[in-house]
Every structure is written in structure tokens, then in C-alpha cells.
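ok trying again, last paste got cut off:
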Amino acid sequence: MPKKTRNTRSKIVTAAWKLFDEQGYDNTTVEDIIFESGTSKGSFYHYFDGKDDLLSTLSVIFDEKYEELMTRMNPGTSAGETMLMLNRELFSLIDNSIPIELLARLLSSQLVTHGERHLLDRNRTYFKLLHQIVRQGQEKGELRQDLSANEIVTGYAMLERAMMYEWCLNNGAYSLSQLSEVHMRRMLDGYLVK
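nice, full thing came through this time. structure:
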């Protein structure tokens, strides 16, 4: 994708999620998003069919967080601790910046969509980064090698989605990042070489 295309689309996505957080999803109009992003109606409709189309871009927001975290990762940290840090940072972002109704809408839209299931897209930064961490952990002898990197990443991703779903069902009644610390550590413990 050309840089100008990425920048325009990214401006629209960033503006939309800022407005969703400030005004709520239902109170944000396409016109608000166009104004906030400094783009045009034509640009908006070039990338998106409407406001609902932006729900799937939450995975883009998550991947942008992972790209930022990649610059802060310490290569000396174990694979398990790195995965815990990534989970903690993502879930802190959700706790502090993602309205629960939007996360719930994203999760439900992925269940009924006939099109792309963005959360399962293996080309996302999320999956590429996790595969890299797991493979390196296996090469260093930190993670089990009787399981493929794909099996470990799939288990990790499934637990993350389950915790997000459960958090939405409970209407965000607790800190997602604090709860996940306990459950993610237990799950990852099963993948560590003892």
C-alpha cells in the first residue's frame, strides 16, 4: 500500500477511534470523522462503506500498539515474559482507551460476518510478532518444541480473545489487564521448558 494511502486511511481510523472514545459510537457521525481527520467525503468512502466498517479497524489500533511495543522489547527477556508484557500492554490499552461497547461490537461482528475476520488474519502484525517471539523462544530452549509455533500462538490468541469476550460479558466490571496476568501466566507455564 502506498504511503499516502496508508496515511489517509490511518488519519480516518485514528480520528474515528478518538471520536468513538470521546463521544461514543452512536453519537459519532461520518461527517464528524471526516472533519476530525481533515480528509474528504470521497476519501472516507474510498476506504470505508460506512461507520460500521470502522469497527473492524480496532485490530489496526491493536497492531499499531504492537508496532510501538516492538521498539521497546528487550532481546534479553525470555519469550514467556515478552508475551506477558505484550498481553499486559494491550489489555491496559483496552482497559484505559477502548470503550467496552466498541470491543463488544467488534467481537460480535466477527461472529456474524461473511467477509473478513480481521481478528483471525494471520498477516496482522500481532500474529507475525507472536510467531517470531515463539520461534526465538523455541530456538533458545525456553519454549517446548514438541508443539509447533503455530500451536502455541493459536493457544495464546484464543485465551486473549476468550478473556476479552468474558470481560465484555461482565461489562468491564474488573481490570482486564490484572485478570489476564494470572490466567496468561498459567497458560504460558504449560508451554515453558521445565
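cool. The chain has a mean pLDDT of 87. Residues 55-189 form a domain with the Tetracycline Repressor; domain 2 fold (CATH 1.10.357.10).
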